[in-house]
Structures are given as structure tokens and as C-alpha cells.
Design a protein that fits this description.
The chain has one domain: Herpes Virus-1 (2-Layer Sandwich). Helix content is 26%, strand content 17%. It has helices at residues 29-35, 41-44, 50-56, 74-78, 99-107, and strands spanning 18-20, 26-27, 57-58, 61-67, 87-93. The strands form two sheets. The protein has a three-stranded antiparallel beta sheet with strand order 2-1-3. A hairpin with a 5-residue loop joins strand 1 and strand 2 (26-27). The chain is globular and about 55 Å long. The relative contact order is 0.18. The structure holds zinc ion (ZN). The site of zinc ion has 7 residues, from loops.
Length: 121
């Protein structure tokens, strides 16, 4: 009897993409599992660990920018990604890296800057 009620569509493929909470690079979960994060795998250690990928990446991100030439792109500079690999990056990423990763960054003298500061919520 539920006429007029559309079936809920299955999630579009794009929704399956995930953004790294630290560098905001966008990849499929399969890529994160296969190669980890190309920028911060040393810190995040996601390669092969689905749980780790869950906690270090997110599907909650806004905007996608392509960084073709990380050394010179003003977008890359603005995104603080100048040392990162070329690829697709999220403009805004919601969420924080796990505490152990943040502690590891501190150990290395790196100050973690969450990428969701623009939107306080
Ligand atoms: Zn990363």
C-alpha cells in the first residue's frame, strides 16, 4: 500500500570514497587498503587494516580539488599540501585523527591542524 514511496536508492559509488583525516587525500577504501595513504602512511599505518582505515579516514568531506602539481599550485599551498603527492583532495574534512596518531605527530614536532576548523560544530 505504500504507493508514492520511492525505493531508497543504493549509495552512489562516489559516496564510497574516503578522505584521509590528516592530509585530506581522497581515495577508495580499496586503495587505502592496498597502498595506505600515499602521504602519511608512515604515521597512519592503514595499509591492510580496515579498522585503521575506518578511524583515519572519513566519508564526511566537502569539495574535491585535483592537485596536479603540488609544488607550485596555489591551491596546494592554501591546502597546506605542497609536499604531498598529486591526486584528489578534499577541501574540508570532518573529523579528527586518532589520539595515538596525534601523539605521534607531537613526538615529531608536528602540530596537528584539524581540517574541519572552518566549520565549528
Ligand atoms: Zn593522508
Amino acid at each position: 500500500m505504500s504507493q508514492g514511496q520511492a525505493a531508497i536508492p543504493s549509495q552512489p559509488r562516489a559516496k564510497a570514497l574516503r578522505a584521509c583525516l590528516l592530509c585530506s587525500i581522497i581515495q577508495t577504501p580499496a586503495d587505502f587498503r592496498r597502498i595506505g595513504c600515499p602521504n602519511c602512511e608512515e604515521l597512519m599505518q592503514m595499509k591492510g587494516y580496515a579498522d585503521r582505515i575506518q578511524s583515519c579516514t572519513t566519508t564526511h568531506f566537502d569539495g574535491i580539488i585535483a592537485v596536479i602539481d603540488p609544488e607550485t599550485s596555489w591551491v596546494a599551498r592554501w591546502q597546506r599540501t605542497s609536499k604531498y603527492v598529486r591526486g584528489m583532495y578534499a577541501v574540508r574534512v570532518k573529523g579528527r585523527i586518532p589520539e595515538d596518531v596525534e601523539a605521534e605527530l607531537e613526538n615529531r614536532g608536528i602540530k596537528y591542524r584539524p581540517r574541519d576548523q572552518i566549520e565549528m560544530d
